[in-house]
Amino acid sequence: MRAMVLGHAGQVLSLDEVAIPEPEDGQVLLRVLACGICRTDLHIVDGELDRPKLPLIPGHQIVGETDDGRRLGVPWLGWTCGECRYCTSARENLCDFARFTGYDIDGGYAEWAVAYERYCFPVPDGFEDLQAAPLLCAGLIGYRSLRLAGEGERLGLYGFGASAHIVAQVARHEGRRVFAVTREGDDDAQAFARELGAEWAGAGPPPEELDAAIIFAPVGSLVPAALAAVAKGGSVVCAGIHMSDIPSFPYELLWGERALRSVANLTRGDGEEFLALAPRVPVRTQVETFPLEQANEALAKLRRGEVRGALVLVP
Ligand SMILES: [Zn+2]
Ligand SMILES: [Zn+2]
Questions:
Q1: What is the distance in A from the centroid of ligand 1 to the CA of 267?
Q2: Per residue in 290-303, pLDDT tens?
Q3: Which ligand has its closest atom nearest to the C-alpha of 84?
């Protein structure tokens, strides 16, 4: 089969001819119909996440088809031990021995992939393959971040990429008010946020206090900025797996029972909840597609921040 393979961090992916993977016990073989591109893939390719299996086929937002015709979604959480203190307390996202798709297990930048079936989700009807792919990480992690941000009405989204464009729709569905903070001069992202229901989008501080903020951009200096924007009792959630260093800030920004936390990975419960909710919103993902062999071009576009919505590879 054809696959885009990472040989070493810092290199571009190479289009290789490799053997179709053989499923082990508990795994299912999937013909890849679509695979979403995530910012985490960039962090892996660039070496900021530095323990991938090598060589590696990246990709953890796989929509695939089994040989008996079922459509399954494969997320980042590829396997957990089921026995550690996290797994046995409904926190399998924090499993000490977790294996992640497109990192510890070969992913979906390929024509075929294997996945542990207990960690796959049925893809909801009503979503085409391409539209479903970004639900599997951008949507799922965004959803978990939104839950952990609390019930607050005024929600700030820092960085308006694949995840934020889904979370904005869910938040509006829940009756929240959405404020989108983008990079200076990113008129396109601001317009996109307004189209999806943000009542304000801009580069500076939002025009009023927020109850919660989710930071999607991997930029540590946004942490004190978001803390300064949330009201007393508000929370700031860092949704990304990697972020540049957070500059020091005065305690006053955290005072007043403001909370700062990260979101790591997902549980299968998150996936079941979100994939049941997505058709009811209904979430409409906006995707730009690239053929498999253009994965490097797609990643470069993501790195430049030139994406409206989500990127999806099609084998
Ligand atoms: Zn575990
Ligand atoms: Zn991801």
A1: 11
A2: 999 999 999 999 99
A3: 1
